[in-house]
Amino acid sequence: MERSGPSEVTGSDSSGSDPQLAVTMGFTGFGKKARTFDLEAMFEQTRRTAVERSRKTLEAREKEEEMNREKELRRQIEDIEPTSSGSNVVRDCSKSSSRDTSSSESEESSDSSDDELIGPPLPPKMIEEPVNPMEEDILGPLPPPLNEEEEVEEEEEEEDDEEENPVQKIPDSHEITLKHGTKTVSALGLDPSGARLVTGGYDYDVKFWDFAGMDASFKAFRSLQPCECHQIKSLQYSNTGDMILVVSGSSQAKVIDRDGFEVMECIKGDQYIVDMANTKGHTAMLHTGSWHPKIKGEFMTCSNDATVRTWEVENPKKQKNVFKPRTMQGKKVIPTTCTYSRDGNLIAAACQNGSIQIWDRNLTVHPKFHYKQAHDPGTDTSCVTFSYDGNVLASRGGDDTLKLWDVRQFNKPLFSASGLPTMFPMTDCCFSPDDKLVVTGTSVQRGCGSGKLVFFERKTFQRVYEIDITDASVVRCLWHPKLNQIMVGTGNGLAKVYYDPNKSQRGAKLCVVKTQRKAKQAETLTQDYIITPHALPMFREPRQRSTRKQLEKDRLDPLKSHKPEPPVAGPGRGGRVGTHGGTLSSYIVKNIALDKTDDSNPREAILRHAKAAEDNPYWVSPAYSKTQPKTMFAQVESDDEEAKNEPEWKKRKI
């Protein structure tokens, strides 16, 4: 401890004391002048010493991390021992103060003054007991005993075993079932926070599920048909979670908000233009779509018009870029699925000829990678997805295979697994949140087994785990990284959520604990018993005993005894149209074609002008008067005259 100045600490003078008064009061130090101390200076010096010793202790701990705690403590004691001689702060202070105040006196008098201090006695630990340098120098909580160290090591070993065995991290101990409908659930989407799930199916419906708002009844809070009579093929939340991309069987993708209201609809292109790059949108059925993972408002779609197009929400009237997949011979090929890489710089698409093509997002002309026989030609590759580290691509083929590809060496697959039947063009595959497992579903015929969720280890691609989902095909699967829960869409209209109470967060755990709400008693009464006013006797009308009086009343009633209006004859009057209509043609038919005023013989009507025409020819006869031969009419003979005039050879035959 540093020496205090004479102004800070003063000693007592024995010459000014009264010995008689001291005897009377009972102790020898009475009457002496009390010593004063500068406590602020002492505390400041103590703080500096503690900080210096803490710094040394931390440096020693950093250097000796790999050594046992016992060795660390011993080395700390050895490092602190040279400085332990100055640890008794009170003794140093007392010695320094005595030297300052009694510099003219001898050493014996200063020792006697120290022994005769006035005031409350100091703590016994500071005066009598020696200070343990190990306890004094170590700041903070004490290290755990050896038994606790062994327990910590055992826990670390268990954690290492779990890391080595990723199957133990699969959350499949509990499940809940969400009833979407009766047809296939062909689309699943979960927002980035994991609060809402959206499902779409072959029944054209899109349903919204809120985990925080649902109870144990598991009912959707909204259902709508955004694309009318088109099957829903893909649903995906944006990276901000405020918009949903809806891809259906039509040629126009839609974007809706979290509550289902339409935000934008892509324009339809001109199908009569040959070059698809010159059209403003898709001209054929869509397959799938995907949001950009980094840029807000940008998404991508692929279609049967052999193009992959990128869009912006702010500009629905025209696409942003057009990517045209081609075969090695330069012919068109239809992309069946597409996706962005994790950083958004690459665009991958799988085509019907079995190829996988990857473009740079900013270069639309030629693909950066092109593997022409990734899957069997003529089969629809249903899904391509990138791992979380961005180096591996997984593809789910229509040839019942699942393959892994290294994007850095895109010349052959890393692994391939077969025997995974699929019957849907949107069967999913995905990576686990720790990138150690690859998950996909299998399809089955109706009544021929159960659909499974199959897990493969990424390093060895061994089939390490299976989950029997239901007696229908497994179409969609989604493993959310924040919730650590697996969502599955099936072919019989169910959406299942698998979770573990210890390993999973929020999501399905929120709605499972809520009990189903009971209907109020008042509501049940109004639903079961409906009483109308006229059913009571006091409000019931009296029944007529005689029908004659009722008929007389009806005859006097002008409304009940009103004579029906007769049909209007003629063109119509009083705003009523005639029976034959009011057109000119109907008038002509009625008044001319049907007006038979001439009741004479038709022959006489034709020949009544014959004599006048013969006597005074005017129209036809004058034109042929010079060339027309003279008419000669044959005379009609009777049957007897014809028999006389017959030749003899006819008579002989007869």
Strand pairing plus helix content: what structural class? alpha+beta
- Low-confidence spans: 1-16, 82-120, 122-141, 522-526
Tell me the strand percentage band. 15-25%
Query: What's the average pLDDT?
Result: 77
Give the tally of β-strands.
30
InterPro entries: WD40/YVTN_repeat-like_dom_sf, WD40_repeat_dom_sf, WD40_rpt, WD_repeat_GAD-1
Protein name: WD repeat-containing protein 70
Organism: Microcebus murinus (Gray mouse lemur)
GO cellular component, one term: site of double-strand break
Account of the 3D structure:
With 654 residues, the chain is α+β, with helices and mostly antiparallel strands. 23% of the residues lie in helices and 23% in strands. The strands form eight sheets. Strands 1-28-27-26 form a four-stranded antiparallel β-sheet. The protein has a four-stranded antiparallel β-sheet with strand order 2-3-4-5, with no helix packed on it. It is elongated and about 195 Å long.
Précis, in short:
The protein has 654 residues and is α+β, with helices and mostly antiparallel strands. It contains 16 helices and 30 strands. The strands form eight sheets. The chain has a four-stranded antiparallel beta sheet with strand order 1-28-27-26. It has a four-stranded antiparallel beta sheet with strand order 2-3-4-5, with no helix packed on it. Strands 6-7-8-9 form a four-stranded antiparallel beta sheet, with no helix packed on it.
Topology:
Elements: H1 19-25, H2 39-63, H3 69-80, H4 89-101, H5 107-115, H6 124-127, H7 133-137, H8 146-164, E1 174-179, E2 185-190, E3 196-201, E4 206-210, E5 222-224, E6 232-237, E7 243-248, E8 254-257, E9 262-265, E10 286-291, E11 298-303, E12 308-312, E13 321-323, E14 335-340, E15 346-351, E16 356-360, E17 369-371, E18 383-386, E19 392-396, E20 402-406, E21 413-417, E22 429-431, E23 437-441, E24 451-457, E25 463-470, E26 474-480, E27 485-490, E28 494-499, H9 508-512, H10 521-528, H11 547-556, E29 572-573, E30 576-577, H12 584-593, H13 602-607, H14 610-615, H15 639-644, H16 648-653
Antiparallel strand pairs: 1-28, 2-3, 3-4, 4-5, 6-7, 7-8, 8-9, 10-11, 11-12, 12-13, 14-15, 15-16, 16-17, 18-19, 19-20, 20-21, 22-23, 23-24, 24-25, 26-27, 27-28, 29-30
Helix pairs in contact: 2-3, 4-5
